[in-house]
Amino acid sequence: MKRAIRKTLFVCFVAMLAVVAGCVTGRPLEKMGLIVAMGVDLLPNDRIMGTAALYGIDPNAKDKVAVLTNTANTLKGIRTKQNQEFSNRLVSGQLRVVLFGSPLAQHGIINLIDTLARDAEIGTGVYLAVSQDNSSDLLKNRFPEISNIGTFLYEQIQQNSRHEELISTTLHQFLHDFCSVGKDPVMPLFHYKNNEVHMSDIALFCDDKMVGHFNAQESFYLKLIRDKYKAGTNEIALKREELEELIPKKSRYSQKDTVYVVISNLESKAKIKVIRQNPPTFQITLHAVSQIHEISEEISLGTKDVIRKLERSLNQEMKKNIKKLIARTQKLNTDPIGFGEQYRSAVRNSNLTRDKWRELYPKAEFSIIVHNTLSRTGIID
Length: 381
Description:
Layout: H1 2-23, E1 32-42, E2 48-55, E3 65-72, H2 75-85, E4 89-91, E5 97-101, H3 102-107, H4 110-118, E6 127-131, H5 135-140, H6 149-162, E7 169-170, H7 171-179, E8 186-193, E9 196-206, E10 209-214, H8 216-226, E11 233-239, E12 258-276, E13 281-295, H9 304-332, H10 339-346, H11 354-360, E14 365-374
């Protein structure tokens, strides 16, 4: 009797599983519009224009990407219009990059960021970036060597992030920096010219508004101070007169006033210490290990004495460039390094607020110490 009851219950359980499984709605890829990249631009009267780059599922299709553009007052309003126009249901589960047009980034984007963060389909690991012009111009342009612009942007950010060439920003990282009193977010900055897409600059934000940008060389120093850094290459210009004694006599009659040294960073760590409360004064100690890839003049690196002299020249130039970089952030009143965070944690009862740090940061003072050691000077990877 008990065996019969157990058998009946088992059959009922299997039948229920079959019914539940049959109720699950299948969503074949061919019947979905997978958004890979999304662009948002500013229009008059605070309206926005949204551009969605979709992944092409059909292998027989000529174009591997479809691009939809609509206008509305909100991101949800744009999505509704795009769904009405597209034959398949649009989904954001494969969204990899959100691109903001520069005019919109300068206007302020926190409301849009908040909407993205609340969307359950969008992961916090999605990359954020700025387009030098309107994002729609970049996403709608047809590049001969790029089959899907959305996938290309994602892979370019990911590759540069993996090799630490530039600072990349995810939705999670932007919100973390924005919500931290004493630190401002940054984003990669894209532009295109002659049918080529470039990502070499970093957009700087004051709260949620873009206020300027750093070029590739400035971004190198920003990463040195901001993060533990184990990659990246930089060309440093040194005054020829400082290295004159290291240059062979046959090359001393060159008309060039500058010697260019290309170094790659093997390892670096910056320590930031508050040494005075008023005005806020910081000591930055940078320890780095680098290798030389190229020198524009014939200099023998075979002796320790030559290496030490070259290190001193490089350290002085790096120190000068870091000072210039920090001075520029003070002029723009943006703190991408997070000196305000250091000040808030080091100064007891500072009660630091955003507005208070905006007043203090332009007046802050800095002492910079650079210890860059050259290693493996004869190796080129």
